[in-house]
Amino acid sequence: MERAKKPSMVSTGLDRANRPSILSPSITGPQPTVSIEGGKVTAMLPTGDSVEVLLYGATVISWKNNGKENIFVSEAAKLDGSKPVRGGIPVVFPAFGPPPKDHATGALPQHGFARNSTWEYLGKSSSESGALSKGGDDSVKLDFGLSSSNISVDHKKAWPYDFGLVYSVTLGKDGLQTMLNVRNEGKEAFEFQMLLHSYWTVDDITKVAINGLGSTTYTDKVLDGGEHTESQTGLKITGEVDRVYKSIKQDTTSISSIDGKPRLDVTRDNISDTVIWNPWIAKTKAMADLRPEDSYKHFVCVEVGSVDGWQKLEPGETFEGGQILKSHL
Ligand SMILES: O=P(O)(O)OC[C@H]1O[C@@H](O)[C@H](O)[C@@H](O)[C@@H]1O
């Protein structure tokens, strides 16, 4: 697991020639709207598609297209900043899971501090490619920032590195894109992991198949913590699942529903791992913030990230990775 990976990007990534994009701004038409209220930023396209992002954790808590909700949030989730949101897309940084005690992140809580820190809203743009000036109207990008200067004293003490995060959430007419940019602002190198812990709504978990993971090696945290190779082309969820799929060759992991009906396509951008998680019956009962008790039937977590080993950033270096989402709702 402790394979050190070289960051595959050392620039901002925004100028990467082959960067996948859902953005296709047009020249005229009504503009997207953005409002900020009660610690939450809401963006809406002229089509009515919308996204809501809490400043707490920069957690996406709603993404609707065609009037339908893509994102699962527990009825008992705390949305008041008292604990990480149970649902949505919490941002995991700088460590995934319980950090190893012998690593620099070892004193941090499970999944690090990004999901339980309050981020700054940095602003919006209609397109990352400068299309705003051409009147681009069918996408809107929201940027959120977190740096070593605005995390808690305890977190800073536990992980005393100078870093800057920019999380960009782009709502387009064809989908949603969420990208995390990590920069080493300090004088010494640091190692990190990142993960977008996305909870997706499904009608019925027993009808779901997760495609695009066939032949991939995964760590099974439920079974034995050991390594296995995925033999199913469409993974079925029939009990508790907690797996880390590593170095996945296929770019896209798709969720399908009853009779193979497409539900969601998740395309990784510059990251190669994906966690599949569903707590099933007993663990759901044991989690006070996951309600109702049959919630496990109505979501699956497909969490893209870089969690197999560590990304190392030298001073001044930058990493960027994330996901492009296409809903079939
Ligand atoms: O309860 P938390 O900290 O939000 O974590 C939920 C789950 O998150 C998943 O990403 C992990 O693989 C699981 O092991 C973990 O149980």
Which descriptors apply to this entry?
329 residues; glucose-6-phosphate 1-epimerase activity; 9-stranded mixed β-sheet; binds 6-O-phosphono-beta-D-glucopyranose; single chain; Beta-galactosidase, Chain A, domain 5; 23 strands; 9-stranded antiparallel β-sheet; 4% helix; mainly beta
Note down, in words, how this protein is organized.
- The protein has 329 residues and is mainly beta.
- It has one domain (4-13, 32-202, 270-327): Beta-galactosidase, Chain A, domain 5 (Distorted Sandwich), CATH 2.70.98.10.
- It is 4% helix and 41% strand.
- It contains 2 helices and 23 strands.
- Strands 1, 7, 12, 13, 15, 16, 18, 21 and 22 form a 9-stranded mixed beta sheet that branches. A 9-stranded antiparallel beta sheet has the order 8-9-10-11-23-20-19-14-17, with no helix packed on it. The protein has a 5-stranded antiparallel beta sheet with strand order 2-3-4-5-6, with no helix packed on it.
- A hairpin with a 6-residue loop joins β15 and β16.
- Mean pLDDT is 91; it is low at 1-18 and 128-135.
- The protein binds 6-O-phosphono-beta-D-glucopyranose.
- Residues 97, 110-111, 197, 221, 242, 275, 277, 303 line the site of 6-O-phosphono-beta-D-glucopyranose (BG6).
- Belongs to the glucose-6-phosphate 1-epimerase family.
- Residues 21-34 have a biased composition (Polar residues).
- Substrate binds at residues 86, 110, 115.
Give the secondary structure arrangement, pairings included:
Blueprint: E1 4-5, E2 33-37, E3 40-44, E4 50-54, E5 59-65, E6 68-69, E7 91-92, E8 120-125, E9 139-147, H1 153-158, E10 163-172, E11 175-184, E12 190-196, E13 199-201, E14 209-211, E15 217-220, E16 227-229, E17 234-236, E18 241-245, E19 252-256, E20 262-269, E21 273-278, H2 280-286, E22 299-313, E23 318-327
Parallel strand pairs: 1-22
Antiparallel strand pairs: 2-3, 3-4, 4-5, 5-6, 7-12, 8-9, 9-10, 10-11, 11-23, 12-22, 13-22, 14-17, 14-19, 15-16, 15-18, 18-21, 19-20, 20-23, 21-22
Bound molecules: 6-O-phosphono-beta-D-glucopyranose (BG6).
